[in-house]
Each structure stands twice: as C-alpha cells, then as structure tokens.
Amino acid sequence: MNPTGLDLPPLLAAFVFGLMGGAHCIGMCGGIMSALMFAVPPSMRQPARLGGLLLSYNVGRVMSYMLAGALVASLGTFLSFSPSAGMALQAFAAVMLILMALYIANWWKGLLKVEAVGRRFWRYIEPFGRRLMPVVKLPQAFALGAIWGWLPCGLVYSMLAWSLAIADPLRGALLMGAFGLGTLPALLATGLAARQLRDLIRHPATRAVAAFSIIAFALWQLFTLFASGATH
Length: 232
Known about the structure:
Pfam families: DsbD_2. By secondary structure, the protein is an all-alpha fold.
C-alpha cells in the first residue's frame, strides 16, 4: 500500500515529511541537542567528538522510531482484517497527516492532546535518560537517543498512524526510519549551532508551505481512497 496514494515512493514521501517537520523538531528536541553539546566538558569539545556524539544520539533516536514503526505496523496486521478495515486505517492515517500539517504551521494544536497520553508513559522512561548525562562517549549518546526517541511527539504519532495503515512490520520500520532521517537536518543544525539554517526552517512561511504540501498529500490520499472504494 502506498500511503500517499501517489506514484511517489512512500519512503521518499516519509523523508520529505520529516524535512517539513523540522521546525517542530527544533522546538521539541532542540533543547536536548544543545544540552547534549554543552554538557560535554570544555576540554573534550573537539569538533570531531561533538559531531560524533550528535550523530550517535540521532542514530539512536531514529532506531527507536523504527522499532515503534515495526510494533505499530504489527498491530495493523491484526486490525486490517478486511478491505473495509484496511480502508479505515488508511483514512485514519490521512487525517493524522492533516493534523500533523496544522501542528507544524501552528494553526491548530489538537495533537497536543495525543501527546498528553504519551506523557503518562514518558515520565517512567525519561529518568533513564537523565542518568546518562553528561554524555562523553558514543555508546552513551546512542543510548540517550534511543531513550529520547520515545519522547511524546505529535509528528511521530502521525507517522506511526501511517505505519499502522501499512500493516507490514518491515515496511513500517523503514517508513519511520525514512521519516527520522528527514528530521536530521533540523536537529543537526541546532546541535552544530547552524543559525541561518535553523532560522529558515522555523520561518512562518516555511512552515506554511510545508503544511499546505502535507495537506495536499493527505487530501489526495483520501480522494484516491474513496474513489477506489466507490468502484468496488
């Protein structure tokens, strides 16, 4: 199943959506990136070491996304027990994409209610991350990223709805991996203090263009979904 309803490969679409969500990623995880860098002792802040820690952290984070994608897609295999159930999951994924777009553009914050549910579980996970600070070794950075990958995030939850509709653990993991890679530029820009790129990503016009693009994808998905349903 192509979640976009288009000829655009799903993994490419997920990567692009990760890029588009960069402004939100800076807001959610930018502080973590900065704290990770500043917690390194001054005597150990060589560019190569900082870059390695930053990359290891993000690899751990993306791996967590992939694990979540596989788990949710596995659930989807049980929920898509009929063609009508599969269509319902695809429609749900499209609606979540629209909510994701509204969230990115700061037009509506309904996904905060979804994040609130995740925060109930996050309070049990977050202390393990704090025990890893300050991060000075690559395994520490990877472990911290793997933990913080479960941070409640409306964008991640929207993409997990996509994995749910795919109902294939391997493809669900790959989809979330592509999305995670798409978020890298924004977070690396924050961690490396690339101010110009960070400001461009957070600009309201950039967020608006990203939101309209995602909404267009989601509406086309709904159109093709119901059009194909009407022909059967």
